[in-house]
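Summary: Need help interpreting a holo structure output

Steps to reproduce:
1. Submit the protein chain below together with the SMILES for pyridoxal-5'-phosphate.
2. Request a joint structure prediction with the ligand placed.
3. Inspect the structure token block that comes back.

Expected: a single structure record containing both the chain and the bound molecule.
Actual: see attached output.

Input attached:
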Amino acid sequence: MNNIAEQLRLAYQNLTQKCQQFKLSNNNVQLIAVSKTKPATDILSAYAAGQRKFAENYPQELVEKQLLLADKTDIEWHFIGPLQSNKTNLVAQSAQWVHSIDRFKIAKRLAQQRPVALGKLKVLIQINISQEASKAGIAPQMMLELAGQIAALPQLALKGLMAIPAAGINDESSFKAMQQLSLQLQQHYPDATELSMGMSNDWPLALKNGATMIRLGTVIFGERAYNKGPNEE
Ligand SMILES: *Cc1c(COP(=O)(O)O)cnc(C)c1O
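--- attached output ---
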């Protein structure tokens, strides 16, 4: 068994254990393997070990890997990175999920460019919950306005919220605030039940506060040789 398969097995084992500890049903939490900067062969290793949900941060990289793995038609691709207008077509044609919607302009372009044959693009609104100037995402008080605009686009399906709480703060306040926002959103949009939060170093806190999708990179694929993308801080 290679490293990736073993690390993936451990990640699922830890997830099951934490779900038991917090008295949550395992079935409500999806583990998304974040493969950004890693080669397609690493995705294949995880795929061989049973993983089907993968996330990428850069549109070009998503398209390239998808092409290399074209025969793996049951992979579910999630786009989780910053998205500029000139790259929306790549994402509209290749992802099933986009977690990082923070402007109506981007949502509208994705809707226009989504091929009908692929069905609705599932989207999450990214909230800048720790109010960091350097981070993407909208302010919490803008959530319902953007949600209303997205809900009017028939090619998109609004499925919930995403956040990247500030690194290093070892308190739960941002996660708790996201859980409250999610409940508020669901009062208006009952299908928008997903809450994407939690990364390698903070996923247990996210899980405890209602995360339904955790995005794990490093614990599965190892450290990234950090290759800063053009849109990344
Ligand atoms: C890179 C990235 C992750 C994964 O981070 P790890 O700390 O490696 O688990 C999750 N979410 C987003 C938005 C990312 O950019």
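--- end attachment ---

Reviewer comment: DSSP finds nine helices and eight strands in the chain. The pocket of pyridoxal-5'-phosphate is lined by residues 34, 36, 57, 80, 164, 199-201, 215-218 (CB under 6 Å).
Status: needs-info
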